[in-house]
Amino acid sequence: MPQTWIGRAGMSLSVVLLLASMVMAGWWYSSQPGDRLQAVDTGGHVPIGGPFELVDHNGQTVTEADFAGRYMLIYFGFTYCPDVCPTALWEMTQALDMLEEAAPDKAEQVVPIFITVDPERDDIEAMKAYVGHFHPRMLGLTGTPEQIADVAREYRAYYQRVDDASASTYLMDHSSFIYFMSPEGHFVTSFTHQTPPEEMFSELDNRVKG
Asked: So what's the pLDDT on residue 47?
């Protein structure tokens, strides 16, 4: 299994995949009136993350300020996802379980977050039932279509509804990155649903300050 986080030197597979996702997101957002995606800022860093206002699976309104001072592991997906979403969330759960066993003080600083890209179906009740299958501290966040579009734009997360005339429902095409954010709300690195939990754990253990 190849290494999938962003390394300290050179361009890793994770960077390539992330930039490819940003290109897709840029195309999608550029088609929206008044919206333009800036892929890289003048400092040469990928500008990922920013303000948001959503509702958690307990019905409480949350913003980025509620997570100030804590690390975040954020994944965008949907509860009807047949494969990559549950895989990614399970990898996050396993990595956090390992961190809790090795360094409980570090684990408490990391908040696992699942943000839906399908607010039409993923209401508060659906999110509560879904995240209950994963880590006990995982937060499921939903909102209006406009709120979801706003937070996806901040994180350069691509998503698009895919209708199938032969099916009775629809799927969501979406990027599959787990964003690791610092206590200051800055992008640190990313993982994918294919990242082994041992690798994710190692990165968290190295990055999170005890």
From this structure: 84
User: 108-127, pLDDT tens digit by residue?
Assistant: 999 999 999 999 999 999 99
Residue 98: beta bridge partners?
none
Region 19-36: what's the mean pLDDT?
38
Give the ranges where the chain is alpha helix by DSSP (H): 13-30, 84-102, 104-107, 124-131, 145-154, 197-207
Q: What 8-state DSSP symbol labels residue 116? A: E
Residue 22 falls inside a structural domain: no
If one counts the domains in the chain, the total is 1
CATH of residue 97's domain is 3.40.30.10
Longest Cα pair distance anywhere in the chain, in angstroms?
A: 52
Task: Give dist(CA 120, CA 2) in Å, integer.
Answer: 36
Partners of residue 63 on adjacent β-strands = 53
Answer whether 131's CB lies under 8 Å from 94's CB: no
Res. 46 pLDDT band, cuts 50 70 90? low
Closest CA relative to residue 72, chosen from 64, 80, 60, 84: 64
